[in-house]
Amino acid sequence: MLVVIKKDYDEMSRVAAMFVRDRLLRKPDLVIGLATGSTPLGLYQELIRMHKEEGLDFSRVTTFNLDEYLGLKSDHPQSYNFFMRENLFKNLNIDPHNIHIPDGMVKPAELDEYCVRYEDAIREAGGIDLQILGIGRDGHIGFNEPGSSLGSRTRVKTLTQETIRDNARFFSRADEVPCYSITMGVGTVMEALEIALLAAGETKARAVGVAIEGGVTAQVTASVIQLHRRVTVFLDEDASLMLKRKDYYNFAAGAEEDFEKLKS
Ligand code: GLP
Question: pTM of this prediction?
């Protein structure tokens, strides 16, 4: 696991975008797993800049979003569908047919089958090459709240009260935040060929500390990335505050950059 710590949010976002660009240049038909939330916004803005100013091409890219609130229509301003269109897709040359976001309006009786089909679609696309992740304050990824099976697949998940409170800032009232979501499972995420997890701000420091340096546990679903073969964690200084081996991560990230230069 490579842990890249940058001085602030903007720098972290820029470096994460360079990382995505590198993967995209190597594989123009990249299949990307996408996350919502405030954390990846800077990364998305930088990718948009790269597309507009440098001609970074997304025409062959396929995307799969991690999750969606159940009960919100795709045009609801707080839906993840709306979020993705506003903050990324409308500014890229991505083919709308290649965009996949769980549908929050699937009828309850059809949900199980719908979730299986979402997994099928990922497989049919050849699997996810690069999964972008944020992290909740309780260490969740997607909406895989504490206690989610580490082998879980795409399914309906009840949000914790903490997540509902955290996400209430985007809604006008806390009781408007849906209680349920459709989310890729932890097992689904783990099948991606590569994972990039982003975290910024002091409020994430504890979750980052336990996810990276604690034991692997379903109580902190992000900790499962310790078992993945190719993971890069992008942090700003504040999110790295509780890491004990920070000096080594900085040393290793520097050494890795030098090594990449030697190879090219
Ligand atoms: C939600 C999303 C997660 C996201 C988390 C953190 O729960 N389902 O994918 O990582 O919020 O969001 P933020 O980046 O806004 O802190």
Answer: 0.96
